[in-house]
Amino acid sequence: MADTSLDQLPDKRVAARYIKGVTLGEGTYGIVFKALDTKTNQTVAIKKIRLGKHKEGVNVTALREIKLLKELKDPNVIELIDAYPHKGNLHLVFEFMESDLEAVIRDRNIVLSPADIKSYMQMTLKGLAYCHRKWVLHRDMKPNNLLIGSDGQLKLADFGLARIFGSPDRKFTHQVFARWYRAPELLFGTKHYGAGVDVWAAGCIFAELLLRRPFLQGSSDIDQLGKIFAAFGTPKPSQWPDMIYLPDYVEYQFVLAPPLRSLFPMASDDALDLISRMFTYDPKNRITVQQALEHRYFSSVPAPTNPVLLPRPAAKGEAVNNIPRPPDLISQEGPVVLSPPRKARRVMLFPGSEGNAYEDGTLLKHSAVTSGNTGGSTTQSKYMPMSVDVDALFGSKPPPRPTISSTDRSHLKRKLDMELEFQDSPK
User: Fold this and answer.
1) Residue 380 region by backbone torsions, left for phi larger than 0, else alpha for psi between -120 and 50, else beta
2) pTM of the entire structure?
């Protein structure tokens, strides 16, 4: 008789319920398949999550996602239908969603009207408001985590980084969100934060819908801050009193904010007012998600498009003719870092060093954060743009990289973001 453990039989029966189809995508922790639920005759999406190297236990990200999604039931939050182990992997069964908001933004065949943008933003904020009412931070808001169904409904997905918040003493990691969507308090290394980080990311998504490209595309944490300050001006202590006390705070050269209209020429006055409130520097004064939903932007004309009538790209797994995104259009110079002597070595370029680190296989371009000691000259960096054209500046030579002393290595590894992948380990 075959040595088959009885506790494996239910897993096999559950797995047999689903007939897997095409692969929809592959991420860090596993693969997502399109499948047919033979019990309900409904199309579903199955995320197969690999276990650890020695198959001991389950990926903690998956467990967090399962725990939270079992409690989050809302029309604008993805539904977890089932979860089962099979052949050494954990399988999460979700309702099938045809596309995501990133595909909408990238598809140049789609024309988004102001009413369409308002509808997508309203659904995004409704899902986020529900999460915040349940004291859940999403912490990974970005367009490809906002899924779109066949009925046009947008739903928040990927809750692997989500956490319960509300305790004033609880500390979190600041290494959350994709960098382009991180709030400035996270970039300055705060360990205490709340719902404002999700609001900032939602503002970045709003801007991306208006511009049809990512709004603030930094190549490192310091470059990201430079992009933010170039867009909205360097914050003054009166705007954000707690800023100077954050763990990774560095002083930036003061620059005035350009008119918001110059960044979003197509936006209405109401849209600009909402954006400005979502991008408020001080998280204590930043608009909440519920306040954003009650903003006059959503009650003014035009009314949000009915989700069923929203333009959508081809469903996942089907051929799509996407045109690459246009390059970053914000070309104005960013502020330089005015570091004190103890921090100057953390951001200054050291000629003759090796090339910069790679991220996603792409050579990172240096930002305009070169700075000498406070007593030295800053002429070289003063007029350097935020994202340097490496080929034009260095020719065929590899660009220099910041020097890192042994005492500052762990601190700088976070500040300069040499690694894209990280293991989230909250306390």
Assistant:
1) alpha
2) 0.74
CATH code of domain 99-309:
1.10.510.10
Q: Tell me the C-alpha to C-alpha distance, in Å, between residue 88 and each of 4, 8, 11, 35, 62.
A: 14, 11, 11, 19, 14
Spatial contact of 189 and 414, defined as CB atoms under 8 Å apart: yes
Which amino acids are annotated as binding site for ATP, given as ranges? 24-32, 47-48
Among 167, 121, 118, 165, CA closest to 139: 165
Catalytic residue among 140, 198, 248, 417: 140
Neighbours of 85 (CB within 10 A): 17
Residue 426 burial class via C-beta count within 10 angstroms: exposed 0-12, middle 13-18, buried 19 and up: middle
List Cβ neighbours of 231 (8 Å cut-off, separation of 6 or more). Answer: 215, 216, 257, 258, 263, 330
Token reading at 84: 């089962």
Could you tell me the residue ranges of all domains in the chain? 16-95, 99-309, 341-415
pLDDT tens column, 282-327: 999 999 999 999 999 999 999 999 999 999 887 665 544 444 444 4
Q: Which residues are annotated as a binding site?
A: 24-32, 47-48
Residue with tokens 């066949």: 150
Q: Catalytic annotation on 158?
A: no
Q: Which CATH code is given to the segment(s) 16-95?
A: 3.30.200.20
